[in-house]
Known about the structure:
By secondary structure, the chain is an alpha/beta fold.
Amino acid sequence: MHSHSTTHEAALLGLGAMGVALARAAASRGRRLTVWNRTSAKAAPLAAAGVPVAASVAAAVAASPVVIVCVTDYPATRALLEAVELGGKTLVQLSTGTPQEARELAAWAEARGARYLDGAILAVPSQIGGPNAHIMTSGSREALAAAEGVLGDMAAIQFVGEGPGAAAALDLGVLSTLFGALLGFYHGARLMESEQLGVDGLGGLLSAIAPTLGEMIRIDGEAIHHGRYEAPEASLEICWRSMDLLGRHAREAGIDASFPGFAAAMFHRGLAAGLGHEAPAAMIKVLRAASAQEGARR
């Protein structure tokens, strides 16, 4: 248990599943929080556990030097705090949004006299407070210093830069990777079903080889960062052939072929650009060229 002063260390606004998990994790480690939610029923379990519930957003903010917000999005955060005095406060935004929204909210908060820290939670509610929960943060180092103690009782904290949009950018990068992989898994699950095999077996296999998959992504990240795509162990053309094979199986089995069709079409763009013998990470060249063309049309 920590030894703290008798005043509230932080206010937590927003008690959805994630907000409740954050509050429970901090309170269980002795942090003195006050919480608020638009519907008081969601605060009842925390109140029963001895966590003070503020009557209003203004009351919660006034009672705490650090204000942590975990609501639907950035506009909802701004709407909550629009009429509240923020001078001298540390505002920690844990809602999901774009890097541009983070930059705009940081400027808005700083204009109102607050220090701003943007945060991206890389965990589901059941993981909060445990070893697999992470919060990426960016923005004011002074805000980080003020909030790091209470945030550290919720998850492992990593500061990724003073640019307010950095944490949100990493969050979106993770979401892109995660949901792209999940769509691939769901197609794989349908493939298993079409062959009368257990989907749980595929899930177990992927869990077992997760470190290998993670290493492949790390290597691709290094390749893109340094612009090195030569002498691959598996070429971009092999990736296209694999996706083409998945599409052929889908047609033979009579299952949905939209995922392999999309992936094969993407890799085929790399082949058309003459990148077939380079590493799969060379697909970044195709995406960069498309971005440049789109920018030229604007």
